[in-house]
Amino acid sequence: MSADSLKPRSPVTAPARWYSDPERWALEKTAVFAGNWQFLGHESDLPVPGAWRADVLAGYPVIMVRDMAGDIRAFHNVCRHRAGPLNVEETGVCDGHLICRYHGWKYALDGRLRLARDFGPAADFDPRDFSLFPVRIAVWRGLIFAAMGEGAPDVDGLLKPLDARLGNADWSGLKVGLRRAHTLNCNWKTYVENYLEGYHVPDVHPGLNAEIRAENYRVTVDGHVVLHDAPPRSPDAVYDGLWAWLWPNIGVNIYSEGLMIERMTPVGHARTQLDYIYLTPNGVPVPEATLAMSDQVTAEDIWIAERVQQNLDAGIYQTGRLSPKHEVAVAAFQEWVASSCTSPSPEA
Ligand code: FES
Ligand SMILES: [Fe+2]
């Protein structure tokens, strides 16, 4: 466990205005999201050279593509001419070029501008000055992460605490079996904080509570990873007793068969999108019992997060107290948000 995990943190919650203020969100967009790794997808999303996938990460349109040599690359999905999109659909396969949908500029898969279609003579126009804006990529156990800025630390180092817990668990045969999205009317932090504690499980999730030994529920913070240990009552349980989370917004929910990556993406200050990516052995359909439990827990979490948001917006509550037994990860999260927003942030 890192020294950071042992630091005393404020027992007082962050102020309610952090969860309602559009200016706060504008600050977090660069200070938190551009400066840290975002989950972009899985290697199986790009099965062949030329396969691409477009996404929007906390307001940043991004496209990832497998180049003709088989390497994964990513770019801002923004043409250098007049900011058109290279692709607007979610996914597809190209023939070795990305073509802007606005006026047809054509880019090689390393980002270089190959053709400015029918541009006309311009002596001072050098296509080498108009390559796509690159996005950093890292792959860990088949998961693809993207970072807009240079400041994001090494992914292997960041995920070491989870890697140590997973040990020899073999993820190599996993493929995307299902994608689902849910939209919530709440600030992204309201949802993340709910994810970071198991204190609410007995009250909000009766079905899940019956599956686990709630008295043994434990949350630990190790570096910028949070581990939830919730031992299942029986070997037939859907969950495997471990949930992990990586700062700032990536959940890793381990099932007895496969896992589900949960990305908690802000869509402005008042809405949050949950993207669920289920990874199953060879991409087989997700078992019904797993989906049913996942849907039930999600509906319950959405219900409570939206009620909490309503109360944060009402202006009566300003701050509260965090449980030293159950809410250590909420305290850590609030501290990281605060420190990101007060220190100089990398530009996207
Ligand atoms: S904006 Fe892309 S070609 Fe014009
Ligand atoms: Fe929950």
Which CATH C-level class of the largest domain is it? Alpha Beta
Overall average pLDDT = 93
Q: What is the string of helix and strand elements?
A: HHEEEEEEEEEEHHEHHHEEEEEEHH
Structural class per helix/strand content? alpha+beta
Helices, by number, come to 9
Distance between the termini: 31 Å
- List cofactors, ions and other ligands: FE2/S2 (inorganic) cluster, fe (ii) ion
Q: What's the helical proportion of residues?
A: 25-40%
Please give the largest β-sheet.
7 strands, antiparallel
CATH architecture of the largest domain: Alpha-Beta Complex
Give a description of the structure.
This protein is an alpha+beta fold and 348 residues long. It contains nine helices and 17 strands. A hairpin with a 5-residue loop joins strand 3 (60-66) and strand 4. It starts with a helix and ends in a 6-residue tail after the last helix. Mean pLDDT is 93; it is low at 1-5. The chain binds FE2/S2 (inorganic) cluster (FES) and fe (ii) ion (FE2). Fe (ii) ion binds at residues 194, 200, 204-205, 301. Fe (ii) ion binds next to loops.
Question: What's a concise summary of this model?
Answer:
This protein has 348 residues and is of the alpha+beta class. 25% of the residues lie in helices and 29% in strands. A seven-stranded antiparallel beta sheet has the order 1-10-9-4-3-2-5, with no helix packed on it. Strands 11-17-16-15-14-13-12 form a seven-stranded antiparallel beta sheet. Strands 6-7-8 form a three-stranded antiparallel beta sheet, with no helix packed on it.
